[in-house]
Write a structure and sequence with these properties.
With 117 residues, this protein is mainly beta. It has strands at residues 2-6, 9-12, 17-24, 32-38, 45-51, 56-58, 66-71, 76-81, 90-98, 104-107, 111-116. Strand 4 (32-38) and strand 5 (45-51) form a beta hairpin. The mean pLDDT is 97.
């Protein structure tokens, strides 16, 4: 399974970005897909997840500003980020979890988000 993120970039504070994640190499639907981030000086942290039952969970940092969505048949994941702040700057990673087939957790290489003040 290969996981690839895209959509990062440089944006001014208050702006928006849409991240994308695609998991390829299997026809099995993932159980859970999620976004994580690592900002400078901190450990990797949860941003948001969505299960194959459409259960969505957001970290407090994402509530009201970020929206996670998923295309279930294509193992594709999105993160719409609005009202970005300089403290959102960091590397954003996609994690894909399978509980059948290629069982396990798979991570992408990350996409960089930089928010200027």
């Amino acid at each position: 399974v290969q996981v690839v993120e895209s959509g990062g970039g440089l944006v001014q504070a208050g702006g928006s970005l849409r991240l994308s994640c695609s998991a390829s190499g299997t026809l099995i639907g993932a159980k859970t897909m999620g976004w994580y981030r690592q900002v400078q000086g901190k450990q990797r942290e949860l941003v948001a997840t969505v299960t194959n039952s459409a259960d969505i969970s957001y970290a407090d940092l994402a509530k009201g500003r970020f929206t996670i969505s998923r295309v279930y048949l294509k193992n594709t994941l999105y993160l719409q980020m609005n009202s970005l702040k300089p403290e959102d700057t960091g590397a954003y990673y996609c994690k894909v979890q399978f509980i059948v087939g290629p069982t396990g957790d798979y991570w992408g290489q990350g996409t960089q988000v930089t928010v200027s003040s």
